[in-house]
Amino acid sequence: MGGPGEPPAGTPEGAPGGEDEYRSVVFDESFVRAARLQELSARERMGDHARAVRRRPGPHRRLSRQVVILVVLITVAFGTALYMGVRQPYDSPAAHRPEPLRMTVIPLAPQGRVPGAEKAADLFAKSPAAQFGTGAGGIALPAVRRTEHFTEDQVVAALTTAKDYLVESSLDPDVLRGRSVRSARVLLDPAQLDQFDRSFAHPAADGRHAPTGWLVRFDPARTALADPGVRVHGSLRVSETDRDTLEVASDHTFVYALRPAGAAARAPASLFTVRRELHFRFDRDDLRMHQAELLVSYVQAGPLACAGDTTHHLRPLLAGERAGAAGPAGTDPFATGQATALCGTLAGAAQPRV
Fold it and tell me: Would you call 294 exposed, middle or buried from its count of C-beta atoms within 10 A (0-12, 13-18, 19+)?
């Protein structure tokens, strides 16, 4: 016998109320979980003004949060990789450490008494320096062209820094009088400052630590400038040694008018000649910072006594003075070429004709 309300022979196939009639509306568990509305329980509906259903958060909200977090992580990782690539590129050259300055100072002894005159202008007019420029105006920059790896502006920066060093180390009155070294020091590559400072704190005739290899300075106890207008003539040449380095070679002759320190203005003046050949090196940091690495300093200076100490100061022989034992041959600082002796003889043609 069939159950209550059920035909004895069961529900006929295809009749209303059969299982197949509701099969299309049966909800599985995944469908229920995905529903945006959820019916409240009987207990939850007992509250005042309780709603019958609540809105469930959609899965796309959780997905959006995950996407945001993923984007943030990717951005941080990309930014870190980019920063490390800029800071530490794999193809960057190894840091270059400047070499110590190699210096040579050769005194040139006069063959007789040092010529003198009351006016420095008369001495200049009768010397090879008569046509020289005065002060920084005598240091002219050459025509500038870009090199294979350096722009025209970078070449100009190298030449300008080299000129500035020549001006500050050869023409600055405070430097010449031995009162200051800072104006030349600030133009050097920082890695050379220890050698520079040691040269002035502990001068030595070792080819590395002579103040007169870095700049021109006179002994203020015995020498004074008779004319502030130093005569200058020479040249600057620039070359590219590799893709990261420029070099500048300078060759200049400086002629100073001097008289004894503390002497009256009418005391005889005399001329003192210093030929400086300097080689500078510049990497890209030097060009940007307006600094230079000084590689070589080759100096010929006279009239000086061969037996005199030229390490800390230059002590010129002044008007009317003679040298002791002279060197082996006459050397003209106005001529090209280098002297090879530790002391030379100042050629007569290098002195004013008085």
Answer: buried
HSE value, Cβ hemisphere, 13 Å, CA-based, for 138: 22
* Number of helices followed by number of strands (H, E) in the chain: 11, 10
How do residues 220-241 score in pLDDT, each as one tens digit?
A: 999 999 999 999 999 999 999 9
Report pLDDT digits (tens) over 113-150: 999 999 999 999 999 999 999 999 999 999 999 999 99
pTM of the model as a whole: 0.71
For 183, residues 6+ apart whose C-beta sits below 8 A from its C-beta are 168, 169, 172, 174, 175
Cis peptide before 203 (omega within 30 of 0): no
Q: Which two tokens stand for residue 51?
A: 């709603």
Distance CA 200, CA 312 (A): 8
Transcribe 93-131 into DSSP letters: PPPP-PPPPEEEEEEEE-SSPPP-BS-HHHHHHTSGGGG
